[in-house]
């Protein structure tokens, strides 16, 4: 029995050894190179090109590749299967002419003679986006806006001059592919800031640097310990478990506030006493994490304010401070979202007020539409900022 076991283990070891010795992947079938691509046409694009062609007739054709250099000494390849007739080349940081080799490859990894073509990329997205990039002072910070017509994946990089080091150091980097870009840096003091800004893509192409001197406007966060719920006629109806105080309990999970579903009672509203008189600069609204851009999360809403409270519930004594809409950065259809969408929803959406609004003590949030279009709404947490000196 022992000899039989040793014999079996020996055979098994031989089989394993033999398997390890086998070449992984398809064995070469021949050494005949495929034909060349033909009927090549070039469509230059921002920072790249589209190359269309006719594939050779070889039955064992595997793919067609383009070989080119994005930067000197940096060779790149783009590939398309035998079923395609177009190659996409991207990642160029300027409009200099580039030489591209088109090579057909068969299943034996034989390569055709290269076809040399010239592409002349259009102005790269980092430059066209940077031309629209604008920075301005905001309450407690800096707001950047830009246009990204082709929804290129880019980052907006802000640097601040460090007076001690006498050099620019990183302040904030924001990644986006939104068509109409916007982001803000908050929590800054009111001293003048010397800022550099540029646009960068995933191939590390950079736009020319733009410089600004910006002085943020004073802002502080209102003390949530002073907030209180005011149940005015016409507000609600309010959920018995997801209570109003969850809006300012310091956390955006697990439960927030929810109104009760009430068909026919729409729009719905809720009133909050801030406990102090001040002028609002912005609010940060947190969505329900497990249902971002869905369910009862706010899509369209108004914020009204009043310095003194009319207990009748009439809107006549209230001033409209802002009419807002939650925007999904990616613009994807309902039920779909990108990493950028998730980051914005999880970190809170900022909605800014104009500085000429009156001072108020009470706010009334009037919800006109939710992301699901239902008949109730939810708020997980609300941060409120402004000048309450």
- What is the ordering of alpha helices and beta strands? HEEEEEEEHEEEEEEEEEEEEEHEEEE
Strand content: 35-45%
The count of DSSP E runs of length 2 or more, i.e. the number of strands, is: 24
Number of domains: 3
Provide the CATH superfamily of the largest domain.
Galactose-binding domain-like
Architecture of the largest domain, CATH level 2? Sandwich
CATH class of the largest domain: Mainly Beta
In the CATH scheme, what's the topology name of the largest domain?
Jelly Rolls
The radius of gyration is 30 Å
- Sketch the major β-sheet: 8 strands, antiparallel
Class computed from helices, strands and strand pairing? mainly beta
Q: What helical percentage do the residues reach?
A: under 10%
Principal-axes shape call: elongated
**Distance between the first and last residues' Cα:** 92 Å
Low-confidence stretches: 1-25
Compute the number of helices.
Answer: 3
Q: Write down the overall mean pLDDT.
A: 91
